[in-house]
Fold this sequence. Notes:
The chain is of the alpha/beta class. The chain has two domains: 13-129, Bit1; 147-262, Bit1 (3-Layer(aba) Sandwich), CATH 3.40.1490.10. It is built from eight helices and eleven strands. It has helices at residues 11-18, 38-56, 63-72, 83-90, 117-121, 159-174, 182-193, 206-212, and strands at 4-5, 24-31, 75-81, 95-99, 102-107, 111-112, 147-151, 198-200, 215-220, 231-236, 257-262. The strands form two sheets. A six-stranded mixed beta sheet has the order 1-11-9-10-7-8. It is globular and about 45 Å long.
Amino acid sequence: MPILSNHRDEPEQVQQRAAQQDPWVMYLVVHQEGVFNLNELLLAATQATMRCADRWSQEPAWADSFRCWSERSFRKVTLRARGNAWARVQAMAGGDGEARGAVVVRALPPRLRSECGSLLRGLQVYNPETSALQPEGPRPPPAGPAMGFVKNPAATMSVGKQVAQIAHAVLMCAWSRWAEEERYVGAFAAWREAGYPGELWPSERWEELLREGDGVVVRDAGLTEVDPGTATVLAVPPGYRLVTSFSGPCRPSGGRALQVSSG
């Protein structure tokens, strides 16, 4: 499959999305009192995003919202909540992502920014220093076929931005043509059945996977932090074979990354 460019990569589309006065937004709310390291948070965000999309995107109350958001914006914003505010977020329609046995992220179905409501409007953007999170530790193997994620080592992003970008990546991979490829159909089904497990792969493999891997590459619209068109995260389908001298992805034969853009 050749490297493809999505219509969201075109400069005219990027400019139109940047100029939106009232964009569609998916909000990802992080539990400010949760205990997690950066990788745990990022994988919890992918889990929350998929649980939200798979649960609500076909529901009559939210189907049009998901469609409009996907076509016009695909924007995600990472917020933080604690105490009573977190309890109220938990009561909203959405999907949960877990770390260390506790819910730490909730993804909410897309809505117009003007219609986000007083609760979300009152929450602050989630942008902690990396040092404020728990230190990285040993990573247990995922349960079942996992989707792999690689961050672009050349793209400097805040924690909140990374949460949004990896949430873009998991959806774009799950909704891509890879999910319909015969060699991956069973793995995607098992991935969903196992609760959307994921793995963060070494950034040293970024160039190799971008050049010859199976997967999708998120290219940012440049609304915050990075320049328009910056590649941020690569997502590799569950079931992709890893055979290397270390625990990381290898070069497959004949694969190419699909390139898409985020809001």
